Amino acid sequence: MDYAVLDQEELFQLALQAMESQQHAEAVALLKQGVRNDGEDARLRYLLGAEYAQIGLFDRAAAEMEQAVVLQPGLVMAVFQLGLLHLTQGLPERAEQAWQGLDALAADHPLQLFRQGLSHLIRDEFADCRERLMLGIAANQAAPMLNEDMKRILEQIDAQQSAVPETEPAAGGSAGTLLLRGYASSGDDKLH
Question: What is this structure's pTM?
Fold first, then answer.
């Protein structure tokens, strides 16, 4: 199919469907066409970044998400995902820096609570991490997949803590085992 005949909204919707169906090549092709059509479309750049992360192209994922955030700083899911991407790549300082883009959110906003929890995780403050992630899960109605990922993080913390004898301190680098998934279909507009 000649994707050049599709407008931005058609490309966006078709890319979402392809992403949800795990059709990675199709999703990337649609999103790249959208970016070629309009390099200033932050939504498509964010989705392309999320899709790159899904297929393991983490440098490209970060570059696209960074561009999306520059173009539209209020795209809060992109801001959160960029920080999470840095965290999964073992770059906690860059994660914290990216998450500064969430500073304007209310203290009880789910992404703010998740950010706080993951910041505690970076410092191996597991009880505080658990509390913040649980609050975030309870507050988040817009992106159920994100809740599932946060629950997996809590399970990983539990597994790590039960595997470490009580006389030893918890090993650092806990955040490196997080998984990054795209939350494209959850709609960033629901998280404002």
Answer: 0.82
